[in-house]
């Protein structure tokens, strides 16, 4: 009986090791935490008919530019893992920061740079920035 239990345990260990070596072990669906990632913040329109394009990737809806919203470059968007999660956006020049909710992807395969945090007018206003500037250096973090 003890031999059978030991053999079963041995088989289990071998299976786990094989899965680990081939990359088939289950992985968490949560995003890796990001802290202080340097980025370029640009202004985006999240309402119908604006330069933001089609509805938001996270829910297929348009959103008000008066809401604290963000779209992340494809790599940071991570296939939607960050949808509806808050991120902290911090101005590089003075450290002022705000929270914004991720609702969209800035598609790096279709013209978006890999380091973009596209945000609504409300985020720019909360950070005391003029949207006519176009782009500003920031850092972003998962909140």
UniProtKB/TrEMBL annotation:
Compartment(s) of residence: Secreted
Gene3D superfamilies cross-referenced by the UniProt entry: RlpA-like domain (2.40.40.10)
Tagged with keyword Secreted: yes
Keywords: Secreted, Signal
Pfam families with a match to the protein in the record: KWL1 (PF24300)
CDD domains on file: DPBB_kiwellin-like
Family as reported in the entry's similarity comment: Belongs to the kiwellin family.
Protein name as annotated: Ripening-related protein 6
Source species: Hordeum vulgare subsp. vulgare
